[in-house]
Amino acid sequence: MTAYTLSHFRLTQTLFWRTPVSVGIALCFPIVFGGLMPAVLPGGVRDGAPVEVAVMTGVIVMGMATLGFMTLVESFVMRRQMLVLKRLRGTELPDLAIFGGEILTVAAIGLFQLAAIVALARFVHGVALPANPALLVVTVLLGLAVFAAMAIAVSGRIPAQGATVVVSLPFLLLAIGLSGFAYPVSEFPGWLRAVSAVLPFGRVAEGVTTAYLGRDYVGHAGAGVPPEIGTLDGFLVMWPGWLVLLAWLALSLLAAKRWFKWEPRRG
Amino acid sequence: MSGAVIEVEGLRKRYGAFTAVDGISFDVRHGEVFALLGTNGAGKTTTIEILEGYLRATEGTVRVFGHDPAERGALRSRMGVVLQESGLYGELSAAETVTAWRRFTSDARPVAEALEMVGLTGQAGTRVKRMSGGERRKLDIALATLGRPDLLFLDEPTTGLDAEARRRVRDLVRELSAQGMTVVLTTHYLEEAQELAARVAIMDKGRIVTQGTMAEVLGRGSGRVAFELPAGAGPEGLPVGGDDTLTVTGRRCVIVTAEPEAVAHAVLGWAHTKGLRLSGLDVRQATLEEVFLDIADRGAREVRT
C-alpha cells in the first residue's frame, strides 16, 4: 500500500513540475504575492501583530488554498475527463494510493512553498522566524489535508474541466477574505466572525499566526497583544481550531465517498 | 468448469429501464484468445467492463480466476487492460510513462523490452502529446502487458491503426497467447478475430446470438458456391434447394447455402449431365464477416417489423 502510494507520488510529483500552470499559479503566485504585498502596504500593527505577519499569514493560507484545493480539483477533474483515472484503476494501484499520491504531492510542494514564504518574510521583510515551527508545519499540513479532501469531494460535482473556476474562485476569495489578509478579523461584524469560526480558513490563519508569533491568537480580536505561550501550549490553545478542521476533514471525506467519480461525467 | 479463467452465468446489466446486457453466459478458457463481437451498442464493452471490475452486474454471476472482479484487489496484478478509450499523460515521454508504470506493476518487464515489444523503441523519448494515435495505442498495449498478466483484455485494440500497425498488434497477440496468456478481444475487424480467436461469441442487443469455436460458428453461417457458366448456357435446372439462394450476374452464378460441399457436388453433377464446363469454381464456408452481417441484418429486420 505504502509502496504504491509512493510510486504514484513520484509520478504526480513529476507531472506537477511539468505543468506550467500549476507551478506558476499554485506554487509561485503566492510567493510572488508575499514578496510584493508588504512593500506596497503601510507598516504598523494589526490586531496586536505586525502587519507583515498578518500579510504573510494570509499569503500562507492563500497558498494552501491554491495548492490544496484549486490544483487538486483541477487535476482530478482533468484526469477523470481525460480517462486517466479510469486507466489508473486498471493497474495495480489501489484507490487510496491514487488519492494518496496526489495528496502527498500537494503536501510536499506545500511545505516547500511554506519554507519559501517564511524565508522571504525573514530576509526581504525582516519578519522574525516562526516562534513555534512545529505548530506551523502541523497547521499547514492539516489545513492542506482538509482542503485536499474538499477538492476530492467537490471534483465529483464538476461536470467539465472548464467549470472548476466556479468553485475555485469563491474558495480563493474565502481564503483571502477570512484569513485576515484583506481585512482585519477584529473588524468583522459579529455574524461574520461566527460564520468564520466554523469554517477552516480563519482557523488555519489562527494557527499560523499563533505559530509565527508564539502568542495565543486563538479567538483573539482587538488591538491588545496576547500572552506568549510555549510550543506545547500552542498546540493546546488551538483545540477549537483542531475540532473545526477535523470536522471538515471528516465531512469532506464522507462527501468524497458519495460524490467522487472515477469516470467522465457526460452531457 | 476446469480450465476456465472467466465464467459468466446469466449476466444482466440494466441502466434504469434500459437493459445493456440481457442474460448472457459464456466462459473463457486458459490460454485461449476469445473474441467478443457485436454491432455498436450490442453490449460488448459493458460486458468487458464488468469482467474488468469497472462495472457491477445487475444480475448473474461473474468469476475471473474464481473471484468476483468487482473486488479488484485479488485480480489487479493478474490482469492487463487495454480500454477502448483512455488517457495518458501528454507531458511524459513513452519511456517515462513506462518507467512510472513499472513502479506500480509487479514483475514488470524492463523499459526497453516493453517498448521494443510494441515497436516503440524509436519513440522512447517522444512526449505522449506528440505521438500519433497509433503510437499511443502501442503504448497502451505496452502498459497493459508490462507485468506479463495471465489475462489480457483488449477492447478494440486496433481501431484507428494503419494496416502495418494492425498486423504488428495481431502478431503480438499471437505471440502473447503462445506464451500462455489468455486474451479477451473485441474488434471491428472481423478478419482479425477470425485469424486470432479460437472461440467467439457474437452479441446483438445485449444477448449472445451465437457462440462456439471459430469452426463451429463459421459452420453455422451460409457458405458460398460460385462459378461461371460457359457462353450460351443458362442456369435452368441448377439444383438449388429450398433455403439456398441463387444469384446470377451475367454468366457468374453464386449459390448461398448452409451446405456448400453438397451443393458443389450437385452443381458439378448437373454440369456433367449437361456437358457443360464450369470455370472459376469457388466453394467456401462463410467468413466471420458474413456470419456477422447475417446476424446484424436479422437484427435490423426485427427492428423494422
Automatic annotation (TrEMBL), chain A:
Chain ranges passing through the membrane: 21-41, 53-77, 98-121, 133-155, 162-183, 236-256
Residue span(s) of domain ABC-2 type transporter transmembrane: 56-256
GO molecular function: ABC-type transporter activity
Compartments where located: Membrane
Keywords, comma-separated and alphabetical: Membrane, Transmembrane, Transmembrane helix
A single cellular component GO annotation: membrane
Lineage: superkingdom: Bacteria
InterPro entries: ABC-2_transporter (IPR052902), ABC2_TM (IPR013525)
Membrane topology label: Multi-pass membrane protein
Name of the protein: ABC-2 type transporter transmembrane domain-containing protein
Species of provenance: Sphaerisporangium melleum
Lineage: Bacteria, Bacillati, Actinomycetota, Actinomycetes, Streptosporangiales
